[in-house]
UniProtKB/TrEMBL annotation:
<dbReference type="Pfam" id="PF00589">
    <property type="entry name" value="Phage_integrase"/>
</dbReference>
<dbReference type="GO" id="GO:0015074">
    <property type="term" value="P:DNA integration"/>
</dbReference>
<dbReference type="GO" id="GO:0006310">
    <property type="term" value="P:DNA recombination"/>
</dbReference>
<dbReference type="InterPro" id="IPR011010">
    <property type="entry name" value="DNA_brk_join_enz"/>
</dbReference>
<dbReference type="InterPro" id="IPR013762">
    <property type="entry name" value="Integrase-like_cat_sf"/>
</dbReference>
<keyword id="KW-0238">DNA-binding</keyword>
<feature type="domain" description="Tyr recombinase">
    <location>
        <begin position="185"/>
        <end position="380"/>
    </location>
</feature>
<dbReference type="InterPro" id="IPR050090">
    <property type="entry name" value="Tyrosine_recombinase_XerCD"/>
</dbReference>
<dbReference type="InterPro" id="IPR002104">
    <property type="entry name" value="Integrase_catalytic"/>
</dbReference>
<keyword id="KW-0233">DNA recombination</keyword>
<comment type="similarity">
    <text>Belongs to the 'phage' integrase family.</text>
</comment>
<keyword id="KW-0229">DNA integration</keyword>
<dbReference type="GO" id="GO:0003677">
    <property type="term" value="F:DNA binding"/>
</dbReference>
<protein>
    <recommendedName>
        <fullName>Tyr recombinase domain-containing protein</fullName>
    </recommendedName>
</protein>
Amino acid sequence: MYQKLVKGLAIYRQNHTKSIYVRLRVDGKELKKSLGTSDLDEAISKAWALKFEMEGMIKAGIEISTVKRYTIEKACRSVISQLEAKKPQKPIYKDYVLIYNSFIIPYFKNKAIEDLTTKNIRIYFESLELSKTRKTINKTCFTRLFQFLEEEELLSKKDFPSLPKDIKTSQSQIGIDFKESELKTIRNFISGEDWLEQPNINFKTSEYRKIFPFIFEFLLETGVRTGEEMNHICFSDIYKDKGNYYCKIRKGKVKNHLQREIILSSKALNCLIEIVSITQNKKITEQQLLSLKDGFIFESSFGKIADWCKLFDQIIKTLIAQNKIKTKYTLYSCRHTCITQMLLNEVDIFLIAKQVGNSVEIIQKHYDHVKLKDSKNIDTILNHNKQKIFQF
């Protein structure tokens, strides 16, 4: 598409973008830039406005520069703005923003677009120890950056730098399960008056703290993933069949975007009942849990879901600072502990995989440390040299 408006002024659209651009010749100089819209009438209006603005600058004796000074940081900030403006927001967008702010921008700070070379990008990747997931997210961030630069006509598609293909990734390691003594310490802390009744905390923080002990036990009991998987559980996802209670897991890391179902123990159900007693100020039975008005189970009375991982991180930092525990746990440790305990109790590995939403292979690969905690195996190791090997 190309439309001439008047001599020295035209608008056009390139194949690679929906945005309409303006080409303006003024005072012997040519200016080309995106008008930031795909609407034709709006683009025409903006093009004329730009022409009048430039002509006004010339009359005022202000020099017109047709070269945009763009640093890599400035381009990244623009991409971040685009991500934050997208509707609806996807959880992965926060990961992209984190990579830009914490890694790409600090590394390429004050560097010009011309420094965005294949070599420099390769050195960037080699400077980091990335998991396979983080490597993929970083590559996506660079791809989005290239696309933005192309739309702004700051980088031609044929000049896109190559992303490295042979960067080694760090071996992903499974998280750690709770040591029995430290789990007891954590439980005592989150249910203690010093934490629950701390002076000068607002009512929102107070409610989050009252809810948290039951969330903690629910995660230990079910092995549900923290974050999206847990936060999206609704009352309508709970149902009863042949005397047993189940919960549908609809969001998060579900294979092929299909939901899975988990069985709820009496302890897990009681946790949900206690949470309702706090957030809805009502006492209910297990059966009444099925007939509550639908909504997110872990939502507060004021309609918000806390960042439970962040809250737990604060708890762990406090306990380490007080020298009460030594291990830097995450809330995901609840899941690892749940799986570890089921293995120790000799639950069939196929059933565990169904309950927690992992493959059998993943559990076999990452939870072989459980063998050393099995009492039968402990006895075998400790007693292996008690029999006389050589007899004279």
